[in-house]
């Protein structure tokens, strides 16, 4: 400490005891903020922005991103948890709580004079043993088992939304992932478009096996509702364009100028005429034609299309062009010369929905969709935001299950089993004081089911003892949050992601170990030399 002061008299230095105290307190503080959010019975936090905007959430990722955290240790833990969400899509709250529990348990032994290095060695041994145990504890599943996927999605969504809505969204999320899934190809969740309409109630949220575009036709005479539609997706300019280079045209009479204007217009009219010719070629009685263009369509071209009964949408987003091809079939074309019946997709129904000043175009009843839209509805902005965050986590949970080909029993079953394995098996393989680190790790694992019990209104110690006794009798048990008694998670359909559990066990002990080994905190940066 003195040496730092010699180098920089203005430096602020915190000694070993104070540094450890600060780190442990920061971890415990963040732990106490987040613990009431864990599980289906967790409470909701209200975040109020500087402008008075409100966000209601129990999603740990949203909380940690939106909260203004000042303490440097707490910021470090929050970043670890947010990284967990970026990698796996879930487990943010569990990571913060596990780090907090590890630091709490370590504090007990540090108070008795144990060196942090000994505890860290115990943590490292326990981490390796728990990861090995996880490999034996997980259950392999078939990718085609829809019932398991529904259970995984339901487990994830119920921790973020109230039960009735979570159960409704479960089917939507699983069907969306199965719609975009292709054999032997990685899942691309960007092919699930998430649209929201501030309209009706949250229960009106639905899955559309097609696409919803957030704009409508720009011509009043174009049809608003069409059936048996041929869909042309294109990236062709159907509007007057200036030349790309600086050029001039010199004329000596008004007649020459008129010819120039007519020639320039003719280029665009020819392209529109090719589209109209294609429509006349492919459309039989009762069939209709829709043009969705990534570039512009000027008023004169829109008028020509409207007279033919063609619905023309302009300035479509690039991501929607790719989704349209996957949903409706056909392919997007980039020049008028490529126009042919082969490039057309098909939709059974295309219609426009007007909501206030906003227009939405629905493309539905497609034949073999590999892209879809989840249309979120709700009465207020905070409801829409809450559902949107939950759906993103649900989609990632189903994707992880398909990628891993495995699940882990939830409701605290893994934590109880892993803690028992550490105390009964791993602890006996280690000699000396490192056993204390393994004990601390085992107690920290039991912190998760304890918090689940507390949040459900039950006595944490009594609940844990019941779970441990039942496990020792040979049953894999978790906590029934409705009764406070042990239950079989497999029968109740409570499954967690294998990837999420693995990531939590890998990352949390590393951060906790690094924080425990900090013996000095120095504020002596370059900016303090002034």
Describe the structure in your own words.
The chain is an alpha+beta fold and 530 residues long. 51% of the residues lie in helices and 16% in strands. The protein has helices at residues 2-7, 16-34, 60-66, 72-88, 92-111, 116-137, 146-158, 163-180, 254-282, 299-307, 318-328, 381-404, 413-429, 434-455, 460-472, 489-492, 498-516, and strands spanning 12-14, 45-48, 54-57, 139-140, 192-198, 206-208, 211-213, 225-234, 288-293, 311-313, 345-355, 358-366, 372-378, 406-409, 478-479, 486-487, 495-497, 521-523. The strands form six sheets. It has a six-stranded mixed sheet with strand order 7-12-11-8-9-10. A three-stranded antiparallel sheet has the order 4-14-17. The protein is elongated and about 100 Å long. The model has no long low-confidence stretch (mean pLDDT 81).
